[in-house]
Amino acid sequence: MMSIFRQYTLDDSFSQVLVSPKFLKEYQIALTFASDYDDDGVPTNGVFRPTWDLTKVTPESITRFKDKNPDVDIKVFISIGNRGTQHPFKPLNNQTWIQNATMSLTSLINNLHVVHGIDVLYDHIDASPADFTECVGQLIRNLKENGVVSQASISPSSYPNQEYYPLLYSSVPFFVDWVDYQFQSEDQPVLEPTTLVKRYNELTKVYPKTKLFAGYSAENEDWATVSPFVFFLGAMDLLKKRSAPGVSIHYHNYYASEAPNNKD
User: Which of 16, 119, 137, 246 could form a disulfide with 79 if both were Cys (CB 3.0 to 4.6 A apart)?
Assistant: First the structure.
């Protein structure tokens, strides 16, 4: 029934997941996050560094997970951005940000050896929609055209990003393989599964449903917006009707704790 499942993670918790080829054709690991801020919270204008646990997320740990699940396609994405208002998208200079981001992410991806894609997930954006589209759109183009990644996804949310992601998608539609909509960031609580399904169907007017995931956060503080009960019933309905190609889930509590600071 389900085709693709994505797990956002900052450690190797994916290694404990039971993956069944009866339900999945693809399992995506989205590493959170690559950030263009230093340890002191100062923006580095596109020089990205990993903030996930480098002692647990290694090429070896990912290879072991792949070997354990040979009948399911395992793909690894690096997610740039952050949840919440900390470390927003804030380029100091567009062209320099694009150059720095292309070079730093290329180096990071090549060093890991196991990365297939790039994901863009900024909850908070401190720039104009035009600047966000120019910078991120060109970054995606560069990474795909240079063969650094084979896939790219964007992960929009409602508030405060209504203007940003539709404009970004419309600028590079052929370069974006997946759109992972983050339902836990809706500006109004989603109290019924039918409301989630209705909202998903509204989104297909902006994003193709063949690309559109239903995204969810399993963190307790997000349940006031979308409870596990509401999401899973709504998502099951979407998957049964083959409206959605897959779903994604955030497992870790980004607000209560942070991953260890990792230096390049």
Answer: 119
